[in-house]
Amino acid sequence: MEKDLGNYRKSYEKSALMEDAISDNPMELFQKWFYEVEASNTVDETNSMTIATIGLDGYPKSRVVLLKRYTYEGFIFYTNYESEKGKAIEANPKVCLSFFWHSMERQVIIKGTAEKISENLSDGYFESRPDGSKLGAIVSNQSEVIASRDVLEDGVKALEAKYKGKEIPRPDYWGGYLVRPISIEFWQGRPNRLHDRIRFALQEDFDWKIERLAP
User: Fold this and answer.
1) Which residue blocks in the chain are alpha helix, DSSP H?
2) Per the residue annotation, which of 9, 63, 106, 193 is the catalytic one?
3) Catalytic site residue 193?
């Protein structure tokens, strides 16, 4: 099988990213971009992001997760701590997050360190989830091999009966991570592949150094 994709081309012309129009703090620029993408109504899930980890087998692996909160401290998402992703973070907390908002011709790449958030914050978010999502988190031994889909569906039915009319507790193996960034790069597509790339690099005094990168 072979397919030549050499003629797949697009001219990026929707916006620009200049130093005199950005904040000194990358989280403020991230918030501005996030709101603009959200307001455009051109992206189904503005908060979908790719997280890359180094697995226990030594290979990098990327997958899409959902950003659930961001603050000046960093970016928060939730997962099963015993999943392949969770085990990878436990062994090596250095991760990379990326957002690609194709309709706005924008990309954000974040390098940082992941750490578990407090149990009460994980409890609070878990309580806000629909019951079906809560049961799904409990029944799924994420990343483990299972015999068939029936394992999941039968497990959910059993849990529905068990917790009927009762509060569904958060399992201790499920919760949130905060990714504290050390580097945030903003990429804005421009014509002729002369894209704008602005990188914020965290310094020892916790100020951010702003650098323009060649495309």
Assistant:
1) 26-40, 84-91, 119-128, 131-139, 149-162
2) 193
3) yes
